[in-house]
Amino acid sequence: MAATVSVSKGVFAFKRPKTKKNEDSPEATSLNYWTQGDNEDVKLLTYKSYVSCWQKVNKLILNLQKSVHAKVFEDLVEFVKNAGESRSQEEEIDSKFRISSIKSQRDIPTACLVTGVNMPDHEAIFGSLVRMLKDGVTPHIAQLHSRNCTTVRGAAFKMISQLMGQNSVMDPDFVDEVASGPSVKRAQCTMSVLNAWYKDLVEDKTLESTPPRPSKGSPQKSPRKSMQSPQKTTASPRKNPGSPRKGMGSPRKSASSPLKSESSPPKKMKTNCGAAVSRVQQPLVIIFEDVESFPTNILHDLILICSEHCSELPFVFVFGVATTPAAVHRSLSQDASACIAIETFQAQPSTHYLNQVIEQVLMSEKLPFHIGGRTFKLLLDIFLYHDLSVKNFIKALQLCMIEHFMANPATFLCCTASSRSSRVKNMTSSQLDIIRKLPSFRSYVEGRPPKEQAALLLDEKVTKETIQTLLSDLDTWYKRFCCLVKVVHALTNSLPGSPLGRHVREVLITCLSQSLVETEEYKQAQKLLGLMAREELLPILREMMSVLQEYNEDEELSSLYDKLVLMMVRFTSLDQLPESVEEPKEEEDAISIQASDRFQLKEKLQELAKKKAKKPNAFESLRAELLHILEDVFITQLQPPVKRPLHEIQFFDCSSTVKRHLIGMPRAALTTALSNPHHYLQCNCCKLDDPTSIITTMPDVSVVYKLHLECGRLINLYDWLQAFISVVDPEADTSNKKAIDQKLQARFVQGVSELQFLGFIKPTRRKTDHVARLTWGGC
């Protein structure tokens, strides 16, 4: 008899056997795609460079994720620990003095984590928090999402199953390797089952922590009993079928039940065994990631249900709030709000995280890949005005990296200095030709003497040495460039109005796009700096010196640091200088001016004003000298990277390509698809010789769209139909209305409906059997 034969008809599911994933297949597939076409050796090197570069970026970002939210996570983990300890101490005091503290037992410790509105980053934030809680506090954690909690029963099942070790928050690839709790059916996931399971868990841990006592009897009796306890816990709902419904009942009806249990505390709390049990208790942490998106009634009922069992189960809530903690109180009723004791924790804003990514990743000398001013401005605008998501910013950075390495074959030299030297030595003639064709290298060659030009174009050894030198100089220059960007930020961020911005990222965009000293913002900042007092200038000078102190290896920067130290000494010694003696005033010639010579009076007054120009004092002279020193350094070093030779190897600045991938343009895509279907379908039947022509094999909606472009503001549906039939079926007879093929008419109606859905036309009441056109200019 077959295994699937049954008396009654049914559907039998056969689970696919689990197979180990081939870890090499994705990498092999991407490598094959990368190396398609000519120059496979160059493409293989660019692929290796990309993989190495992205691994460094990923490592830096993982370290940043741990450090950015480390302080708030440490405080929150300490809060969860203290919540469990304070609860056990209160229970011991209440049981010792027989105090009935109903309110303290119903209050659930709640941490309100304000994460901000950057929704795509919340998954990474709560993932890091769960890992820290599992490592240091408790393994019993449940993560609830609003999209999975549409009913109270479903939310309770998710919560209880995760707390008991089933469907826990873990990587699905490692589910089989992690020990889980007892197998409980969906109908048996009730608070009574959770309560019995937790009591047995605490007893097992207490027995494990206590040393065995020497006795004459069998020493293995109690361990067997502890090993059988989970089976009893699992079977308890079957013996008492009414308990699950009672546990999942309405919290309002069972609100009086804690009064009886709390008025007579259990006997275990009075004994020493109860004290031992309370010491080894681990809290049950429930995380509501998006508490504002939860239905109000479900969140209200879950809080009341947990509060009814708070005397037996040490619940701790973690609310993920995107706006303000007041949103939690607005969404909850008074009785639910009275059951939780909220403490607020403020996570770092996403802009702070972005600043760390920019300073430690994009401005790092460890990374050979950099982005230009236009691309960086595009990524920053998407972040600030679209989603405030650092996760999406990193994905966009990875896209820029892929485009840079795939589109430019010269990027096989975009690697670390150690591996670059070996690659330069092993370059072939074809690879050298790739470098020689770069516009920046050609400009560099044109600026050299004729003898050197011939050597750079014909001698491979000289060319390799020059490439190695230029790339090393480019690395040194970018390190110096990033340091001076921070110096400019320290110099100008406290100015009124902040002409160059208040963040390093804004100064970086300006310096990457154009020469700093030629911008209007820098000229305005220069004027404001020329009016600063000594008390305002000295803190700025100290901040610039602290930035330069980290880059003592560079000769230019160390020279600038020495000059700033000397200027600081001269500024501080101004008080010790003797007061300048006023020079005797020279007698001025008497001016004889007639009453009618107004223009002559104006000219002579201007000449006298120039002669009487006030001489600068010692501080003003020092201030002007300081600004002059800084400006000389900025002129030579803060130039855009496009002026450096071989910048195409390390800098990516094609913003149009990134914009096409990241910023959707549905209107242009629709117009292209309707007017030229071959652009997307890539079929020969839709290929057009003339963009304005219409052929029979085009899709119906494209034919209808092109015909409607020939009409005016109002379109006659019958004339439109006749034109459609004449294109689709030229041999059809359109003179007789009754002879029109119904299939062609249905195809026409479908195409018109699709155009209306896309927003190109709309119905109108001005004329019968007419529609109004909504788009003009061929778009």
Automatic annotation (TrEMBL):
Keywords: DNA replication, DNA-binding, Nucleus, Phosphoprotein. Residues 253-266 have a biased composition (Low complexity). Residues 667-776 form the Origin recognition complex subunit 3 winged helix C-terminal domain. Residues 217-237 have a biased composition (Polar residues). It holds the Pfam family ORC3_ins. GO terms for cellular component: DNA replication preinitiation complex; nuclear origin of replication recognition complex; nuclear pre-replicative complex. It comes from the Eukaryota. InterPro entries: ORC3, ORC3_ins, ORC3_N, ORC_WH_C. Residues 3-413 form the Origin recognition complex subunit 3 N-terminal domain. It is found in: Nucleus. One of its GO terms (molecular function) is DNA replication origin binding. The keyword Phosphoprotein applies. GO terms for biological process: DNA replication initiation. Residues 205-274 are annotated as: Disordered. The keyword DNA-binding applies. Residues 424-654 form the Origin recognition complex subunit 3 insertion domain. Component of the origin recognition complex (ORC) that binds origins of replication. DNA-binding is ATP-dependent. The specific DNA sequences that define origins of replication have not been identified yet. ORC is required to assemble the pre-replication complex necessary to initiate DNA replication. Binds histone H3 and H4 trimethylation marks H3K9me3, H3K27me3 and H4K20me3. Component of ORC, a complex composed of at least 6 subunits: ORC1, ORC2, ORC3, ORC4, ORC5 and ORC6. ORC is regulated in a cell-cycle dependent manner. It is sequentially assembled at the exit from anaphase of mitosis and disassembled as cells enter S phase. Belongs to the ORC3 family. This is Origin recognition complex subunit 3. It comes from Penaeus vannamei. The lineage of its organism: Eukaryota, Metazoa, Ecdysozoa, Arthropoda, Crustacea.
